[in-house]
User: Which sequence fits this backbone?
């Protein structure tokens, strides 16, 4: 650890003093991809709903700072974003918006990471807010946006599980590999759950997963799991066009069945230890750009 990283970590420890002890913490699931346009936002939204149906208290965070659009998938018009909390003194209760089927949504706000960079007062405010989310919800599902930018990486390395979405295109697989390589270097505890999207059938989805798995095992010595696959399903774009989640609109579709199976599978996995704790703390500790 270089000196700046150590300084940041100890400053975060100082900020933590005075906060109550370790209660139960939300599980943090980041939905990401190397390449854009592979289905992250649809996966994030519908995965969040599947987990809510399975009895969890879920907060969906739209952290795609380039193309924040979960509110669009839900046909919402937003009054306020996270930026209003930080700069205008708005309450989180004004920003958190109820979504379908019991989920809560923290709508996207470009500039979240830029805000974090600015000053320690602002950072402390957000730190406490996320700390509170981790205590109030069972699960945070975070749509991180695509690619290897610092913004995306910070949300990825702060997570417990990374749902990495890819399709069968060589570019998408290569970019997924690059994401694993960079993220694991910053947080070796990350658990990668691969979601193959737009697969014609299970056999081809498995083939795609195995290509990625082989490269990851051979060159990075990292284990990855296949969370599952989403078939090409016309109900997905149809639901997008109607601004509703496919889970809600088409409960018997192939995509819904597949998503519910993946939700159940995630919940069967062991929860992370409580003291592994705070999301933002880990985000800062994982930084390597100092
Ligand atoms: N399984 C699927 N079957 C059919 N179309 C899909 C599927 N998954 C995603 N799509 C379509 O792909 C497009 C991109 O999805 P989106 O979730 O916005 O991707 P990202 O967030 O990665 O940019 C959407 O128009 C969506 O309708
Ligand atoms: Mg998106």
Assistant:
């Amino acid at each position: 650890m270089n000196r700046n990283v150590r300084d940041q970590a100890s400053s975060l420890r100082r900020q933590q003093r005075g906060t109550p002890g370790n209660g139960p913490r939300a599980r943090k699931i980041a939905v990401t991809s190397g390449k854009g346009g592979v289905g992250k936002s649809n996966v994030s939204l519908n995965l969040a709903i599947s987990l809510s149906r399975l009895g969890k208290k879920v907060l969906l965070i739209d952290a795609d700072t380039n193309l924040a659009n979960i509110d669009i998938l839900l046909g919402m018009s937003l009054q306020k974003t996270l930026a209003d909390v930080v700069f205008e003194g708005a309450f989180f209760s004004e920003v958190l918006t109820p979504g379908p089927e019991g989920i809560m949504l923290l709508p996207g706000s470009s500039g979240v990471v830029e805000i974090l960079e600015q000053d320690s007062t602002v950072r402390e405010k957000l730190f406490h807010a996320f700390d509170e989310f981790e205590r109030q919800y069972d699960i945070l599902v975070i749509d991180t946006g695509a690619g290897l930018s610092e913004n995306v990486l910070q949300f990825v390395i702060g997570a417990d599980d990374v749902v990495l979405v890819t399709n069968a295109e060589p570019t998408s697989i290569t970019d997924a590999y690059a994401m694993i390589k960079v993220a694991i270097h910053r947080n070796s505890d990350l658990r990668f759950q691969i979601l193959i999207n737009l697969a014609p059938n299970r056999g081809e989805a498995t083939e795609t997963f195995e290509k990625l798995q082989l490269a990851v095992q051979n060159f990075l010595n990292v284990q990855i799991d296949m969370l599952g696959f989403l078939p090409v399903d016309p109900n997905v774009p149809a639901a997008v066009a109607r601004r509703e989640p496919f889970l809600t609109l088409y409960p018997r579709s192939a995509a819904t069945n597949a998503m519910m199976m993946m939700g159940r599978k995630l919940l069967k996995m062991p929860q992370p230890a409580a003291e592994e704790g705070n999301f933002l703390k880990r985000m800062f500790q994982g930084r390597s750009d100092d």
About this structure: The longest helix spans residues 202-220.
